[in-house]
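Question (not urgent): is this output format expected?
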Amino acid sequence: MALPLEAEEFLGWLVAERGRAANTVGAYRRDLLAYTRWLGDRPLATVDAATIESYVGALRAEGKAPASVARSVVAVRSLHRFLAEEGVVAVDPGAGVETPRVPRGLPKALREEEVEALLASVSGSDPLARRDRAILEVLYGAGLRISELVGLSLGDLDLDGGSLRAFGKGSRERVVPLVGMAQEAMRAWLAPAGRGAVEPERWARRGDAEAVFLNARGGRLGRQGAWGIVRRYGERVGLGDKLSPHVLRHSCATHLLDHGADIRVVQELLGHASISTTQVYTRVSAERLRAAWASAHPRASLR
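Got this back:
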């Protein structure tokens, strides 16, 4: 099903005027396809606030998660605001429609012993084992997003200085420490017996030669490939669906706070634009502290 011309113009505006990333625009497209499918033959110019409220009710009736409903409402409201600003309609019907509140969930961090078991599950010193070990160590040690990890280029690394340059959401750049086991694992991967053994005689695509992480064919490792690596080692140690690249990022932040790191430092490490995003980890650490106290303190239970 094709989107109406007005919706296509809106998506084009997101790219050209607002600089939205391809993944973001793709998410908007999926939400708007669902919305226009629900509208049927009704033109966008005839939609009113009651129609949008009915759509929100329909999403909830389908059992959509609160976060999915909220994301869809943001896409729909943004479309109608664009149409009003462009003069396609006189009034923005979504202006008075509130975005549903999403209950703030707590990140599911691994226990430290689970992380240790995961990192220890990479055995051998062949090139791909070196790569996989470096991927897991950097995801956990530097708290990178998976997109930041696979986007790393050799020029982003300063191994001697113990840091790397990551490009996060909105192409925001930050410098992240690369020290300890993560630094050691990265050195082993970048050695001739690691990445050097995977390099092809001729690079297939421009930019692959600068990629930090390569796949078995010598091309830049993609997001899906990195996901598969993390999942494979997670299954090895019995973590299964509990593990994802983002869980390692959550675990990095939680364990730093558990061991006394300042929340502003964690905010800078993770690249959060707002401290409120980082503050959720303080709730995680407080809950873990209470759970540890309840299980270990002699006065925790009533006698």
